[in-house]
Design brief:
Structural class: alpha+beta
CATH superfamily of the largest domain: ATP-grasp fold, B domain
CATH topology of the largest domain: D-amino Acid Aminotransferase, Chain A, domain 1
Mean pLDDT: 94
Distance between the termini: 43 Å
Low-confidence stretches: none
CATH architecture of the largest domain: 2-Layer Sandwich
């Protein structure tokens, strides 16, 4: 049995994993850089080890992290999400050092992390995919010819991308020619590989994803779907389970597709199969995330299944506790990503000290946070500092509970997206469960812009925040 886990992450997901360990009677080990010396995950874990002074690179050094796991007596490692969570090298190093990696096999991570390999695997399994290139593009001329064949708009995508980065929509040939080198540059900088491919752009789709659990005994189930259509620049803002926009027949169909996709690649542990639903009600495979998702909370809320604990059990070689027929859901849940950003200033990151913080409560309210009163949000990482999840029996009820909980949640000292979410909840289309991935761009009136920050001033503001943080 797993007795001690190193949490190879930071922020709210590290706190979430530490809590799961505590409930299972498992010791937890945190890691941190100087920027996180006062972080909540460091305070909550049973032990904590320093990674060095550089804010970010310590979390990306797989060999050093596994060394800490070994020397601290851990027998397992949980990667969380982001950082090295979908890096096959980390899984391979864990295997060589006899540390259980709480996630799928390195080969599966590598296959699903490569969008072309993933796409080909899904096509072979009979999973519907968006029309596009058969492999990586050789050059811009191949992209031009293919785009003319399948028709504009098209999407240029980094083959090894994720998190909404390395993606450009092209509405005509001029934009395709202009964006081709940009996507290659973004892919090289963000993912270390320049490969890109092309897909037909599904205009204003709904983004529907299926949560999967699979054990080492060959059992694979789904925990229904999440609707992640409320996005800004391909970054999810609000997630919902189950989707209020699909029928029971569609729910059964996409759940079966998710299980079929996981089985096709021999998947083990928790994963998410993401689909686009077009305006003609066609589902298309988009990608598979081989880790726990930020938005796993809404699935836990409607099903009552602790996904992180199930991850640990699966990594320990135990069978799933549930068969598909045992899994049901009740009501609706909405998760709001509370980002330290100023919506009125083009979502400028708002780093600094939280002078006061009041968490909401009451029935059907859950908070996953990395912040507290007096905590200084470092300027080096993602701006998400908390997740608010609300539940109610009906769609109308969960929308109203979300509005109330957001109103109760008070954060002083930094700007956040709380007020912006309140505006979204009051919009008739959201209240009527009629929205798609173009919702945010289609409703700029939801943000009362005071001033638009030019890129050079935005960069200067971030630099000033970093300088101020380093002076603390």
């Amino acid at each position: 049995m797993i007795k001690k886990i190193l949490v190879a992450n930071r922020g709210e997901i590290a706190v979430r994993i530490v809590r799961a360990c505590s409930e299972m009677g498992i010791k937890s080990v945190a890691i941190y850089t100087d920027a996180d010396r006062h972080a909540l995950h460091v305070k909550k874990a049973d032990e904590a080890y320093h990674l060095g002074s550089e804010p970010v690179t310590g979390y990306l050094n797989a060999h050093n992290i596994v060394n800490i796991a070994v020397t601290s007596g851990c027998d397992a490692l949980h990667p969380g999400y982001g950082f090295l969570s979908e890096n096959p090298e980390l899984a391979e190093i864990c295997a060589r050092r006899d540390i259980k990696f709480i996630g799928p096999d390195a080969d599966v991570i590598r296959q699903m992390g490569d969008k072309i390999q993933a796409r080909n695997a899904m096509i072979a399994a009979g999973i519907p995919c968006v029309p596009g290139s058969d492999g990586n593009l050789e050059d811009v001329e191949e992209a031009r010819v293919l785009a003319h064949k399948i028709g504009y708009p098209v999407m240029l995508k980094a083959t090894n991308g994720g998190g909404g980065r390395g993606i450009r929509r092209c509405d005509n040939e001029k934009e395709l020619l202009g964006n081709y080198e940009r996507v290659i540059s973004e892919a090289s900088k963000a993912f270390g590989k320049p490969e890109v491919f092309l897909e037909k752009c599904v205009i204003n789709p709904k983004h529907i994803e299926v949560q999967i659990l699979a054990d080492s005994q060959g059992n694979t189930i789904h925990l229904f779907e999440r609707d992640c259509s409320i996005q800004r620049r391909n970054q999810k803002l609000i997630e919902i389970a189950p989707s209020p926009q699909i029928s029971p027949e569609q729910r059964a169909y996409i759940g079966e597709l998710g299980v079929k996709a996981a089985r096709a690649v021999g998947y083990e542990n928790a994963g998410t199969v993401e689909f686009l639903l077009d305006q003609d009600d066609n589902f298309y495979f988009m990608e598979m995330n081989t880790r726990v998702q930020v938005e796993h909370t809404v699935t836990e809320t409607i099903t009552g299944i602790d996904i992180v604990q199930e991850q640990i059990r699966i990594a320990d070689g135990l069978p799933l506790q549930y068969k598909q027929e045992d899994v049901g859901f009740r009501g609706y849940a909405i998760e709001f990503r509370i980002n330290a950003e100023d919506p009125k200033n083009n979502f400028l990151p708002s780093f600094g000290k939280i002078t006061r913080y009041y968490a909401p409560g009451g029935p059907g309210v859950r908070i996953d946070a990395a912040m507290y009163s007096g905590y200084v949000i470092p300027p080096y990482f993602d701006s998400m500092c908390a997740k608010l999840t609300v539940w109610a029996l009906t769609w109308d009820g969960v929308v109203e509970r979300g509005r109330r909980a957001l109103s109760d949640m008070q954060v002083y000292g930094v700007k956040t997206t709380i007020q912006y979410y309140q505006e979204i909840l009051q919009h008739p289309d959201f209240k009527g469960a009629d929205f798609n991935t173009g919702f945010v761009e289609a409703h700029p009136e939801l943000i009362e812009y005071v001033t638009r920050i030019p890129p050079e001033l935005r960069a200067a503001a971030i630099s000033a925040a970093i300088a101020a943080h380093e002076g603390i």
